[in-house]
């Protein structure tokens, strides 16, 4: 006996529609991917947010992107302490087993996680400081980013922190020895993106550490 | 200065194409979602695998699904120990802040993470036992599932373990007090799915704890 | 000593620009593709015409499409006679060695080869009938298509013949045993497209044998 | 009724994106090209390989290159025997009808066709010797090239044969009377290139019959 419930009917209907159309159109390729294994060219780390689907933005086919999604697209620093690190496991699998060529971190505007982090760090959300707050502890990863935006006017800080989340994740990625060595060997490229969900704009982290429109 | 590199041009072109078409056609809805905030009806926990995109299968519109993707669609047991738990943070945010009505865990066939877990538990992948293996430690979550498939013929175990990953995650979800109370209050439904990536079939975990075709 | 000449300087300059930008951005992926081999999902058969580049239309990345281009995107019937059949060799390699999932034949408007075929078949281009005319003999492949458009008003025949070239090629593809068996086994999908180079429209051959706008 | 299938949706989406951006931006030029006909300055003969797109390397605009792609970028010797010669037809059309100024043959590294030819000629691929092997019979064109590399150390032969494929094709091109006369009249230049797909290098066949970096 389980606690699960039947899937809502509208989802079942959509699934049947998908299988009769999109799956049908692609079935030879799906079969090939199933038999021979995936070989994605890129890993994408983006937010769980329901308004940001990277497969749409890049017209990605099945098999192209290995996608990890968590709150605020964060990567923690390298910590081989024997504990469970889901994000680090995803990065390890993508870089070492799948040997992806690109690793893209994509942040976005109006991110609830980033807003929560800013509220927490600026003393406006004490409940997030609690040891039992999973969101709070997860957003601790972004605390170093908060330090780097405190000099800005108050009304610009949250926005800046969204972009800082991308930089912090990229910095943390480079603390993983297998990421750093793959980057140095020219086998892996890192990319930082930030997406404005309201006007659709996509910005790229450039070599001078600024985000520029694509 | 950063280590990031420019985005490959074909992705930039596809983005511009997306913005001129899909985004343009939906911009009033995107704007509304940006201004009013997301209000997804469901959270989906699925695998990072590049062959499994739940947005396609369910024809999900922007704003519908809050999606967490990790290796092998696992949820660890409730552990409010002050450490960083990315998956638990995503669940907490979805259930407590967004108050989603559905929480769907979706497994799939030919999952590299599950295969690795089976190899590790059956003594064929000692490197995954190492404390520094992020994938190995992450797959520890599924060890209780392995115990439940050892009675099966050897060639059925991996396949059974893929489905067990869904059951283990659902069981673990119920150890989160806020999940259990929302389920009991009738405010949250849990759902278990398993997807065959080769033939496109979707199976649902039924009340008798078996997976049945939709 | 050879008869070759140095490459024009503007092409050398463009190559250097490409290598410093596009190649540089994609080099990790190019390296991976070089080391592990190509695994294209589709073969495309299109015309040599300088106005039809399928990689642009589909924003194709390196490694996605295996492309054969010949005059008028024609495929001859299966003829295992020990002679040199370049198109048949390309199809054989794509289907049997690379095991592509999709085989796309794309025709286009204002095709010089098709116009020549129409002129030849309607008696207006006797020089193409000559045994030494490579273009004429190549366009013989499309003669069965000409028979199927002669009932149309004169000013619609060339246009109809462009689309017939796609149908004839698809019919001929099915005479290759390894194509037919892969299609029947669900391992290969055939697709017919026709592109209007003037207004950019792309049409698809539908199940009722008519071309419909995408 | 046809055997064709609907085009996968991600390709349809990308096409719509292309039409709304690249096509839209260039439509006056596309219209001009459609109305006045193509007038490419060069014909390029390159391989079907999905990793070699000459339009990218040379940033080619629509209308610039008339492109023939076959297995291993081969040109057979002149043989006006009334049979179907697709490559010869493409050359004839480019030189006699379009009167291109340049004819470029571009080989590349890790060519599957060349590797197959080497295996066949060295007795390691008897299946390619079969009269019904289209790839084998097509690669017969390169047999004279194999004879010229047998004196090299075994591990250098395949690589040398890739470059020999360019030389053989250029030699064969000069057996076409209309090519030879256009070259002699100064109306057509032949060029030989070889591209390393792993490191992006492009080499040019120089007057002393050696390939030199550009």
What's the structural blueprint in terms of helices and strands?
The structure is a homotetramer of 214-residue chains.
Chain A: H1 9-36, E1 42-47, H2 54-57, E2 65-70, H3 86-97, E3 102-108, H4 112-121, H5 134-139, H6 143-147, H7 154-173, H8 177-184, E4 189-195, E5 202-205, E6 211-213
Parallel strand pairs in A: 1-2, 1-3, 3-4
Antiparallel strand pairs in A: 4-5, 5-6
Binding site for Zn(2+) (chains A, B, C, D): 47, 49, 108, 111
Keywords (chains A, B, C, D): Lyase, Metal-binding, Zinc
Cofactor (chains A, B, C, D): Zn(2+)
General description of the model:
4 copies of one chain form a homotetramer. The first copy, chain A, is an alpha/beta fold and 214 residues long. The first copy, chain A, has 2 domains: 1-37, no CATH class; 38-213, Carbonic anhydrase (Beta-carbonic Anhydrase, Chain A, 3-Layer(aba) Sandwich), CATH 3.40.1050. Chain A is built from 8 helices and 6 strands. The first copy, chain A, has a 6-stranded mixed beta sheet, covered by helices on one side. Chain A is globular, with a radius of gyration of 19 Å. The N and C termini of chain A lie far apart (52 Å).
């Amino acid at each position: 006996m389980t606690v699960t419930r039947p899937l809502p009917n509208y989802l079942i209907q959509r699934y049947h529609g998908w299988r009769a159309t999109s799956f049908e159109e692609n079935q030879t390729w799906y079969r090939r991917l199933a038999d021979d294994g995936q070989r994605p060219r890129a890993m994408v780390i983006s937010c769980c947010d329901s308004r940001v689907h990277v497969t749409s933005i890049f017209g990605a086919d099945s098999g192209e992107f290995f996608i990890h999604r968590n709150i605020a697209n964060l990567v923690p620093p390298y910590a081989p302490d024997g504990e469970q690190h889901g994000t680090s496991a995803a990065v390890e699998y993508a870089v070492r087993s799948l040997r992806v060529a690109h690793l893209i971190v994509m942040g976005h505007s109006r991110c609830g996680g980033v807003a929560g982090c800013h509220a927490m760090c600026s003393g406006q959300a004490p409940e997030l400081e609690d040891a039992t707050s999973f969101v709070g502890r997860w957003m601790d990863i972004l605390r170093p980013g908060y330090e780097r935006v405190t000099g800005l006017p108050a009304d610009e800080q949250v926005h800046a922190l969204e972009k800082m989340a991308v930089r912090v994740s990229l910095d943390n990625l480079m603390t993983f020895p297998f990421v750093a060595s793959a980057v140095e060997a020219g086998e892996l490229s890192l990319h930082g993106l930030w997406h404005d969900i309201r006007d659709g704009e996509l910005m790229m982290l450039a070599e001078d550490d600024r985000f520029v429109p694509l």
